[in-house]
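Slide 14.
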Amino acid sequence: MELYQGIILGIIQGLTEFLPVSSSGHLVLGQIFFGLTESQLTFDISVHIGTLLAVLVVYAQDISAILVSVSGFISKAVTLKPVTLLLKEDKNLQLAGLILIASIPTACIGLVIKQFEHILFSSTLLVGFMLILTGTILWASKNFYFKNNTKNGLNIKKALVIGVGQGIAVIPGISRSGTTIALGMFLGLDRHMAAKFSFLLSIPAIAGAEILSIKDMINNGFVIDPVTIYATIASFITGLVALKLLLSLVHSGRFHLFAPYCWLIGSLVLLSKFI
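Slide 15: predicted structure.
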């Protein structure tokens, strides 16, 4: 892989990981465009870590608050002190629990889909269809921005449904952020909470997937070359920009505007297979 190819793919990963247009789908298309037919496992892991770091930076305050609450809960539980009141009143502790619960279906579905990744991640036809589906989901969300959802908070049932959506979004062409944010709004969450939960939920999902992939990378042997390093930096920087842009669009009620892009790219991909 040439340096310019790596940087371009890193930028694509950074932008599309958070913008609701499917990073996996765009990486597949980008690698096919550059003729990169060999496995790029080390590269893919590194650029995903770059975007994970972007989430950690943007949500550092929320993550810190959650960690403080969880550590307080553990310290009390270990010393056999009452924790019932803490579970009822600590919103950050409740959020941590819901993230854990939602991660269970994500992990189960992700592990199943991983068995077919050699097929899924080589099919431009699948990417095309799934991008069109993503666009349809985004467009449908436009009617859910400004509903009065103050009484419809996050609960276990909603967290599980969103977790299932995140697991399915492993399929290239389906946007993880687009699916989980839209599902949150469909289920009655206000757009701010839907976005927050989506990106906090992405942390264990991305981290878990990378840990599993690192095992394969070590078994196959790996080298962190300059191309991978520059690509990771590019994915981190563009990831920061894309995440802040998406949050702005969600909060202002313009999240669905990415739908035509998904429809267009998906249609072009399908046309390229039949022409």
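Speaker note: The chain has 13 helices and no strands.
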